[in-house]
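Notes from the pairing session

We agreed to fold both candidates in a single pass and log them together. This is the raw record for the first candidate, unedited. Please don't reformat it; downstream parsing expects exactly this layout.

Candidate A
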Amino acid sequence: MPGKKTADLRENGQGTLEKFIKNTVRESQENRLSLIDGSPIFEEPLVGVADGDDPLFTEYKKIIGPFHFTPREMLERSLALTGGVRRDIKDISVICWALPIAKRTQVTNAHRDEWPSLRWAHTRYYGEKFNESLRQQLVSLLTGQGHLAVAPMLSPLWKLLPNYPGGPTSNWSERHALYVAGMGSFGLSDGFITTKGVAMRCGSVITNMKLPATPRLCVSHTDNCLFYINRSCGVCIDRCPAGAITAKGHNKVQCFDYAHKHLEHLYKRYAVENFGCGLCQTGVPCESGIPAKAKRKNYPDRKADNVRL
């Protein structure tokens, strides 16, 4: 926007970054379902920060795969790849956000049982284009004020390994970064359950700007999922038209094949190039928040410093 004042990170950098992200989500015309009714794609985001040297990022090399980058590796190698000036990098922070999908879109998708609603498909496709823009804008803000920054999903280093055992896997997981940043936990469907629910998209930017890490309250990586707490839920199993979710977890191969083969006939009809059905993220108890029985207040004896995957 012409004449828009640039956010100043010199004082209260974390608060300024959070305000910048929230303002961008609220004001950007890219965050609109412009081909439907012009309403917002995403509602007010959640923002958190992970310590880029948190040991969990190293553990991900065992949990996800040895190819998964730590934040420090991603920042240093991306910088070298683009010909950036090398310098000693003392601090590493990962700025993370969750973009809750608009309630109206959630409702329309909750009524589907085989493929997604038009609003959901546009949210997945055009919403991710806005998310890409948000990542780039945040990188530009940070680098414009003298910091190093990279959005892993936009880095030439980012890769998807489509044939990896267990299903398509990438060398940077934004959901796992959100977990380190204390923003929620995983569910049976592999979705990430935040305080605003599992129906969301997420993003991350790595920087050398020193920022305080968000407290991590979850003791395990499945704390917010009723199925893993006491087997009292399993709605996402019934919601999955591909049969890709069972009591054993989420089969990424079946899920991927369903979205990219069975639903391909909708691409032209919906005016998008790809999308996921998202049925396991809507019409479920964790759709818009953490189910009551899974809320942290029910587990007063758990200690944040004992978090383990």
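Candidate B (folded immediately after A)
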Amino acid sequence: MADRHRLPRPLVRKVEGSNLVFRAGEGPWLKICPPYWRDAFDAEVRVTEAVQGRLPAPVPAIVETGELGDWRYLISAHVPGAQIEAVLPDLDEADLERIAGELGRFMRAFHAVVVPGFERPFGPWARYLGERLAGAPDLHRSRRVDPERVEQITAFLDEQSPALRALGPPVLIHADLTAEHVMLVEERGRWRLSGVLDLADAMIAPAELDLVAPFVELFRGRRGAQRRLMAESGVGEPAGSFSALFMAVALQHRFMHFDDWFAAEIEAGLTDLPSIAAAAFPD
């Protein structure tokens, strides 16, 4: 494969995760996808092609795609910068609010892109939400959440289900704006958004769901940065409690593992959902 596409050497594995990901020297990236992630591969290719050139910060341009038996691969251009997780401890509040604004504008542009006929097997949103609400007890038990907390989650979602069903219209969302996928570059002593990686989890859902990952991983407990991200993304202030709504939305995320996502709050001694929500998503 490297010879076929004349990739620079060496091929160095860079990321642990669902796929095999390599950097080809100082050049492009190679992602090799196993057969059971075919839907995610197809989503990444289709959404990348749809949003390319339409965003205020780049996503990796796909240079080539191909197949190796049942496995599929793509070669994508390098996006310069550092993953935000590498510099996050050094960013002050002004840095975080500025980056939140830039990321919010990226999200607004991303959400505005229409991909005709695009839907994931677990969609559409109304069905996805209904199944998540009905299956919440089994889901969280399967992820080893304490039985008492599972009861709390179930009761909390019962209260919040009208607000969840009233969320904004489903749009194209990235759905995985985590600290390893948001890229920054330093210019004249300031960090700014330089790109966003990995569109394999893109889906059609209310824009509020896209806020959850950066709220938790990048701007946890920071009211100013969270509100800046929300405002720049075009999402309006909720009519009720901000913390309650975004805890309810967080519980709908495909990759929600409660004890991992809210380990800091649990370790700080917070035990009930409203307290955890207020700490993570301050009103």
